[in-house]
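[job 4417] fold queue: 2 targets
>>> target A
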Amino acid sequence: MTQFYDARGNIYGVVSPATLREAGIDLPANATECASSRKAWSKAAIALCCDWPEGQRPPNSKSHRSDGLLIGPFQNSPPFDVLIVNTDGTLAERSGNGLTIFSHALTEQALMPEQGARLSVHHDKGVALQTSVKPAKVEGVNGFWLDLGQPEFGADAVGAQNIESGEFNGRAVSHVKPLAQLDPTWNHSQFVRIGNPHCVTLLTDVDALPSNEQMRESPLSEGLTRIAYAMPTGEGDPCPAGVNLQWAVRESEQRIVARVFERGEGPTASSGTSASAVACAAWRVGWVDAGEVHVVMPGGTAPILLEEEHGELIGVRLFGTAQLMG
């Protein structure tokens, strides 16, 4: 019923709306109505598709067998509507790895045109977010370029409140008090919006990056959840709608190492939009130039293309690849 795919260690289930309805989930007829009514059906869909089968959950694994659920397509030809459901039942505005997986699934279903297509992610935080996807091959690997548009920077871009100013590498950044209270080295952050909100904390030592195992353990897990998740799961501080968290270190020229704690999910092996936000933040503080940037995460390395014009970033593209899990 639900097929699972892996994109650099980020795992999503893909299921059609018709399949969910046949299983007894009361899913509305179109993606817009699904998004506005998600509280009525999303947790049941996650339980049905993403819970571990009885007795099959591996030791020390995450509470669900995937990082989320992709519901779609709602059409047989482009543009394609899709819902990205986090395992806590909330809806995401965008997921780079999720849209890569969805594009791969569309290709397997012979629905993805050779010239690519536009994907429309419906959510309950505003208008549907559009992403243009184009099949491509990079270094012999088949995948997709995702056009994520122009990034925005700063506290206002993500709705952050009560933020202090700081400086890093001679550039203006933000001081996020709740993060610095968890670890005093987490005192320089850059807010980025790439359709969804991100807070990239900039570090100077790769050994200072938190591991996914550390981020799953108490009390760090609870502290990060309070920051990343909106109420009632978290506290939405400093972003009432929640924010995705990343930590980044410059490893070498045009190469950044990162860790990710996602709003609505927690620590993940990789994230496409998080990698894109990290690349943008690195450009903002002078760590990298425009052009190709590689962001290294536990699940793999994401190639990002940054386009600059007159000293401003005007475009971000992410290359993603996925595979069906056995």
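>>> target B
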Amino acid sequence: MATLRESIRAASARRAGRMIQCEVAVEAVAVVSPSFRRVTVRGDGLSAYIDPLPADAFRLFLHPPAAAGTGSGADAGAAGPDDRAELSRAFTVRTFDPAANRLTFDVHRHGSGSAAGWLDRLRPGDTADLLGMRVEFAPPEAGAPARTSTAILVADGSGLPAVAAILAALPAGQPAVVLLSGLVEQDLGLLPERPGDDLRLVPAGGLPAAVRALTRPDGGALAFVAAEASEVRVIRRLLAEDLGVPRGDLRASAYWRAGETMEEADAAAELRYAEAAAQGRDLSDPAVLEELALA
């Protein structure tokens, strides 16, 4: 059976040359838990999204929400590029309705930065430019046997939407251990109901200790990690060395960096990726992307 990384790489190769770039309009914004809001967007260009995978990632380039007294969000979206805020954020697909070209995603509401202000002002009719989709997780190829090894999913609030999407895609018989940090009990309602899963909520900063407390699963394991960069580095080592997760079945992503704004982190990441591309490195290889993300 293909490893998780091999499946991700194969799915990325199938999408080569099919990047989705389109404008989307907000249809709804709803509070779904104390820490999360669910945003629903629609756009004709989403008709190109023909192969959804769990936890697909995309980037939104955020137009300023419509200002009071200036008309609808659609009017604001018609502004020229120089009038738009230079702000972008990455999100995870939660659901997609191909018949309506409608996509939902959950946003972790925390802090008081530019994106938080955008989210607080967001209203139906506001617009954004969408760029995607990046493969974050991939099930086995069609016709291949389902994975039966334990899925170890580790995330803070930034990674919970990805964990929720992955859990929803796992076969009913595949066991899962889910470690989440920095959230409240009500936030767990975003996860699909899967009787038998081992779900643990730990304090902020407590993910490495929670991973250390795990016992090595019988029958092997695969793992997905999405959290702050320094925590992810430690967790990745613990999963591989202490719990025996094969490197090929370990997907670790740094969703943010302590002490850096998202703009600073994104600018530094762009430089690392550009340098790697100039060196001829394969940016479709999940191992290379993981190395760059955690550098």
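[job 4417] complete. Note on B: The domain at 150-258 is CATH 3.40.50.80 (Rossmann fold).
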